[in-house]
Write a structure and sequence with these properties.
about 625 residues; mainly beta; about 35% strand
């Protein structure tokens, strides 16, 4: 570990511990250490709206942790203040003054104005466009945000796949203003994806089925995060023989089965170090997998890598292996390795989630019907549950302690699931409500549930709703269910992703590239946003959506129809709701680090219609700064 980093981490951890010790009332436990998060800038954006310009910026979680709502903002155009009184009820502003200009905002703390933010990112065309480097016949699959250069603004790492699978997989990095930083060619091993055994199986090649993106479209084996605490994110990826980094250096290995976890410098695209991928599953055939980030010690981020293969006949039994890693700026060190027992009943889903299910400050690893503890031991397997494609974990019920989950179940190759879906306690795995299969199924579609979603879409009922893609909603177990009140509708909305887009705290729905709002009174949906000239990709998903810029609401990253650029869209809906940026909420931010099958992202507190006060997060930055603005 670099001495400077060791001193910084020690100072931050000691300060957090001492703060807890000396602030804790007698008879109460000390405050746990705070997890170290990114030091983000204000994220100010300016978008044409109506007769003027809509402005939106971040309230940072680090600021909210210290000041709560006792922080205000002033808005400036060309150095002239626009607002008469400080903005306190929102982090948005509509400017209808004449003429163009450069916008900035300044925080006001204890009556003292702080320094100006970076000038607003200008969405002059209603979006920000990022031109893609030439790559004929390629499309963008996934995107991972990360602050690659340490300036407080996210950059994007994207995976690009050859549409006819004749070209090797590419990783590229771009700034939000359209500058291409680097390209890594994942090499000939990535071509093996074309030969997959089936839509849910990895390709029959080396140990990962692909050096980076994974066996088919269900895996990722890439993530982006600042692991060594220097303020600049690394790119973590599976590599193999022939992988070529941005400086021309290549991985050489004797066999395609010799694969590695490589740490790539996020600013330059060059390799910093690597470690071999475990060979436990080589005899069982090819393996897919996922990468993600978890705070296993509650303070520092660690890399989580998952390998999964199916043994024997097509889509046979799952074998699953986890390894977790720490990077100190020089070396990638193994924290622990865990092979999930084959007899445990655990079955792999298509995306892991890293989330603190027991609320002790340390993250667990959830994989559908089971959870692995932060120390690499099995926490639970949900009784009776098998393989499914999607699952959600969040505080779905505001009146119930802890987090809950909702998962769907797949029936495949003659193996019928015991139930179509289940709503459960995320800490213990106890099923709270279980769906029911129809008594007289007429087809496999009656038993195989391919999609499910959880979101607060009905303000007439407390907490979240959940529903599946089941076509016949008159069947038992089908329709929209509320976590407290049971079935509330026999008609269902789109089931792809939930998104916070308009001004209220309820969820809207994202499908393909459009946003829609569910009306429970009419049981129909209305489109709120439907951009032209962009397309979705596999599974009707865009490469990314999330709170990338501006206030707490979420942006959409979509690829143009000609595959030559990415566009970022942000809402211009006014709101009187003020919430700290979702990018500094622990569960939400870690949701970005796993792509895989793509699922909705959630906060670890209840965010819905009934939310009145947001809990303060236990977070800090590496240097202990609240933000990139100077605070009193």
């Amino acid at each position: 570990m670099h001495p400077d980093r060791r001193r910084r981490i020690g100072a931050v951890t000691a300060a957090a511990l001492l703060a807890g010790l000396f602030s804790a009332p007698a008879g109460h436990a000390a405050e746990p250490p705070r997890r170290i998060v990114e030091n983000l800038d204000r994220g100010l954006v300016a978008v044409p709206s109506g007769e003027g310009t809509f402005l939106s910026w971040r309230l940072l979680g680090t600021e909210y942790a210290r000041y709560g709502n006792d922080i205000a903002f002033n808005v400036y155009k060309n150095g002239r203040r626009l607002n008469r009184a400080p903005v306190t009820k929102s982090t948005t502003y509509q400017d209808d003054s004449p003429g163009a200009g450069a916008y900035t905002v300044r925080a006001v703390v204890n009556g003292h104005e702080q320094k100006a933010s970076r000038a607003a990112l200008d969405f002059a065309d209603g979006y920000a466009e990022i031109p893609l480097a030439a790559a004929d016949g390629y499309t963008v699959q996934h995107a991972w945000p990360g602050d690659l250069d340490g300036d407080g603004r996210y950059e994007l790492v994207v995976s690009r796949l050859s549409t006819d699978r004749s070209g090797t997989d590419l990783l590229e990095a771009y700034t939000l203003t359209g500058e291409r930083l680097w390209r890594v060619d994942l090499g000939p091993n990535s071509l093996a994806q074309a030969a997959g055994n089936g839509a849910n199986d990895p390709a029959p090649a080396a140990i990962s089925g692909s050096t980076a993106i994974g066996g088919y479209r269900n895996d990722d084996n890439v993530t982006v995060y600042d692991l060594d605490g220097d303020g600049r994110a690394e790119v973590l990826v599976h590599t193999a023989d022939g992988t070529t980094f941005a400086d021309g250096a290549q991985v050489t290995a004797a066999s395609p089965a010799n694969q590695f976890v490589s740490v790539i410098d996020g600013a330059t695209g060059t390799e910093r170090t690597r470690q071999p991928v475990p060979d436990d599953f080589v005899a069982d055939g090819p393996a897919g997998g996922h990468f993600g980030i978890a705070y296993l010690d509650g303070v520092h981020p660690s890399l989580v890598t998952k390998l999964v293969t199916r043994v024997g006949a097509k889509r046979g039994a799952f074998r699953i292996l986890f390894q977790t890693w720490d990077f100190d700026g020089t070396d990638l060190n193994l924290r622990w390795k865990y092979v999930v027992p084959a007899t445990s009943g655990a079955t792999s889903f298509h995306q892991i989630r890293t989330v603190d299910v027991d609320q002790d400050g340390k993250d667990e690893i959830a994989d559908g019907n089971y959870v692995v503890n932060s120390d690499g031991t099995l926490r639970y397997v949900v009784d009776g549950a098998g393989h499914g494609d999607r699952f959600d974990i969040a505080d779905l019920d505001p009146d119930r302690p802890g987090l809950e989950g909702f998962a769907i179940q797949q029936s495949e190759l003659g193996v019928v699931s015991k139930f179509p879906w289940y709503y459960y306690d995320a800490d213990t795995g106890e099923r709270l409500v279980t769906g029911v299969h129809p008594a007289n199924p007429t087809s496999d579609a009656d038993l195989d549930v391919g999609r499910g979603s959880a979101a607060d879409i009905d303000p007439n009922h407390p907490g979240y709703e959940y529903w599946t893609s089941t076509a016949d909603v008159t069947r038992p177990g089908a329709g929209v269910f509320n976590v407290q009140d049971g079935k509330v509708s026999t008609t269902t909305p789109s089931v792809n992703f939930r998104i916070w887009w308009d001004g209220d705290k309820a969820s809207e729905l994202l499908d393909y590239t459009h946003v829609e709002k569910w009306d429970p009174a009419t049981e129909t949906s209305t489109k709120l946003f439907d951009p032209a000239g962009v397309v979705s990709g596999a599974r009707n998903a865009t490469p990314f959506y999330g709170d990338l810029l501006g206030d707490w609401r979420e942006e959409i990253l979509a690829e143009t129809a000609d595959h030559t650029a990415l566009r970022i869209y942000t809402t211009t809906e006014p709101t009187k709701t003020r919430i700290y940026t979702l990018a500094q909420n622990p569960e939400y931010r870690l949701g970005w680090t796993v792509r895989g099958y793509l699922q909705s992202t959630y906060t670890d507190y209840y965010l819905g219609t009934e939310t009145r006060r947001i809990p303060r997060p236990a977070i800090t930055t590496e240097e202990g700064a609240l933000s990139r603005d100077d605070h009193a």
